[in-house]
Specification:
This protein is α/β, with parallel strands linked by helices. About 35% of the residues lie in helices and about 20% in strands. The chain has a 7-stranded mixed β-sheet, with helices on both faces. Strands 6-14-7-8-10-9 form a 6-stranded parallel β-sheet.
Length: about 450
């Protein structure tokens, strides 16, 4: 029987997990893992906050998968530019799309496009050293607002409020560290549409706010009065109970003991109505909300104004379409059934699959993509059955014509260079940002393993 050859587009956690499950289920499979950036790991490398080394350790597990000889890494290859989806589908028995979510969801309110109104995903890309992110970031506001009730909102708030010297041990690039040194922020307003029992923060991430040096967390006790819906939520869900307990502890702190130079103010039951300013952000208007007996939120018409010089929108990510792959702009996902990509007529497109956030939307933690990948791989294996494959010759010819590929050995050279830079600063690594420098370290004339 011909050895099956599979292409996976996107070398983040979703793509690597799919590769791992596939090679476990089909031991003789050959997998080519394509990544448009010069380095693998996707969200773990470019979406996890630098001060979360525990989560970044997921890279170690992904590294072990990519070491397997049946998996070939091909970084610095962009589908749609360097190779088309039609070419991939012709050269491989199946293609799995796992390109994640990289765009910010919009608020859809007046003033959203003013200078000083930022998407959280763009800010995360900057402080995580994404090669395509700008090198400068305007950290020039003393008071800022962060809109959102999930862990990304907490990450953005925590990074904005943390003193630069407390990030010196992390892998942040030099230009990011310089930017935070000059950050003048004193007050950060975290604005949340729902009540304290309905936020999506994980308890651990929320508690981290209270561990920042020289930062006070301020919660109004009046906003923690729980209605029947909130009481049901904390009775049913332990994580929400811990979140409310943490907020209550902060609300009980004597205001006279709050002497920090920076403050985080948590505001519940407020939804964005308008960002203010003529030439740049000068404030934000929020509408007071009220829950009904089922926890559904409605606006009250009451407007609250916060005087801020910057607004960060962190209400969710959206995926970008991939050329040659159906995409639903309304949902921001690839239409699919159990991972099988669906065409315009609603039927599965032979040999084309999706997994991760581009398949199901940006929900769940990094590890939750494993079950998603397993279902997609089940569908793929079922469809392959005992059919004769295309053989490895077509994929070999395609790889040979791709220029500038960064393979596994090239990535290891980048990894070594970053660790050496980190050692010079007494840290585990310092991330290299410049794309050309990454490619120089990788020696781009090599072929992928």
């Amino acid at each position: 029987m011909t050895i099956p050859v599979i292409a996976i587009v996107g070398a983040g956690p979703a793509g690597v997990y799919a590769a791992d499950i596939l090679r476990t289920r089909v031991p003789d499979v050959q997998i080519d893992l394509f990544e448009k950036l010069p380095a693998p790991y996707g969200l773990v490398r470019y979406g996890v906050s630098p001060d979360h080394p525990r989560i970044k350790k997921i890279q170690d597990a992904l590294h072990e998968v990519l070491e397997h000889p049946g998996i070939r890494l091909l970084c610095n290859v962009e589908v749609g530019t360097d190779v088309s989806m039609d070419e991939l589908r012709a050269a491989y028995d199946a293609v799995i799309v796992s390109t994640g979510a990289d765009r910010d969801a919009d608020l859809g309110i007046p003033g959203e496009q003013l200078p000083g109104s930022f998407g959280g995903a763009d800010f995360v890309a900057w402080y995580d050293g994404h090669p395509d992110a700008p090198r400068e970031w305007p950290l020039d506001a003393q008071a800022v607002a962060v809109i959102g009730a999930g862990n990304v909102a907490l990450d953005v708030a925590r990074m904005l409020i943390t003193h630069a010297e407390d990030l010196a041990h992390t892998d942040i690039p030099d230009h990011v560290e310089r930017g935070f040194v000059h950050n003048p922020v004193t007050d950060l307003h975290l604005l949340i549409r729902r009540g304290p029992a309905d936020v999506r923060f994980s308890p651990l991430e929320l508690r981290e706010l209270g561990t920042r040096r020289d930062v006070d967390v301020i919660v109004d006790p009046a906003q923690l009065v729980l209605d029947e819906h909130a009481e049901r939520m904390i009775a049913q869900f332990s994580q929400r109970r811990i979140v409310v307990r943490t907020l209550s502890e902060w609300a009980a702190i004597d205001p006279a003991t709050r002497t920090a130079s920076r403050r985080i103010h948590l505001h519940f039951y407020q939804q964005p109505a308008r960002i203010l300013g003529e030439h740049r952000v000068t404030g934000i208007e929020m509408e007071r909300t009220r829950p009904d007996e089922l926890g559904r939120i409605a606006g009250t018409g009451e407007i609250i104004r916060h005087e801020v010089g910057a607004v960060y929108r962190t209400i969710g990510y959206r995926s970008s379409p991939l050329p040659g792959v159906p995409f639903d702009e309304a949902t921001g996902r690839v239409p699919n059934a159990a991972g099988r990509v669906l065409g315009a007529d609603g039927s599965p497109i032979p040999g084309l699959y999706a997994t991760g956030w581009i398949r199901r939307g940006p929900v769940g933690l990094i590890g939750s993509t494993k079950s998603d990948a397993a279902e997609t791989v089940d569908s793929l294996i079922s469809d392959l059955g005992g059919k004769a494959g295309v053989g490895p010759e077509g994929s070999a010819r395609l790889r040979d014509r791709l220029a500038g590929v960064v393979g596994w050995d090239g990535w290891l050279r980048i990894d070594t260079a970053e660790r050496l830079l980190g050692a010079e600063r007494g840290r585990e690594r310092t991330k290299i940002v410049d794309r050309d420098l990454l490619l120089d370290h990788a020696r781009t004339t090599e072929h992928a393993r």
